[in-house]
């Protein structure tokens, strides 16, 4: 019934596609029995007309007509457990369509989980939904309960938002409605929303929102690999402002924290080519201890910097803060000094 509008070049359909008129015509001219039968007919994958329509950015009047033909389909899922509201939030349909589905399906459709354990709010947070739509899903899904809901990977809507680069406004809304618990929640591989924000180089404003509500505990949180948000920030190239913020709120402890490989944030910064300014922030806060810290192979940050071809200014910083004799003379488990590594690099 609704397959035709999906068959454009993008595979997603458009609200103004003239082929929706064919759907309207059928729904207008068919008998109630014919409409109900057509509206409930499903493919092998469990797709039925309302669900297919919601994949195609449908006009709200078509959705309303399909719901009139078979009201119970608003709560029906396909073989992956996705309801029309799931699909709508995943595909970015209009707010009017979302409102209609919620009006007809109530709290039940907002709380429904697909086979990955995602609620419609999870999917909306991962797909650039508007602040108004996110607020609507939170309100209809139980408020704080909706914000705390975890999928099968342990991730909350706030995890999703931070992992998929949601706007500052969306993150602020989820933080305000979900509270400290949402900021502290550990999901996939033990990661918090702050871990994801740092991994994806979120803005200083977003990181500040998470840190202010999550407190020092959020900065100190370690994932299953022992990495803190500062480790992530140094590994994935977060801005100097973000790294400064994490250091200010987390203190010397986060600069000294080691992951399961024995790496401190300074090790990560040196390995992944962080700027001189970032390295300076880490050594000024971490001091000599940060410069002399050894990973599981016995290598110091200076070993790593020399091996990875760091700039002269970065090397000089590590030597100055680590003490020339101690830093340059340090040997790893193979007996190599930073000079050995520098010579290996050429």
From TrEMBL:
Region (Disordered): 1-20
SMART domains the UniProt entry points to: ANK
Keyword set, alphabetical order: ANK repeat, Repeat
PROSITE patterns assigned: ANK_REP_REGION, ANK_REPEAT
Pfam families: Ank_2, Ank_5
Keyword Repeat annotated: yes
Positions of transmembrane segments: none
Residue stretches of each ANK repeat: 80-105, 116-141, 153-178, 189-214, 225-250, 261-286, 297-330, 334-346
Protein name: Uncharacterized protein
Organism: Pseudictyota dubia
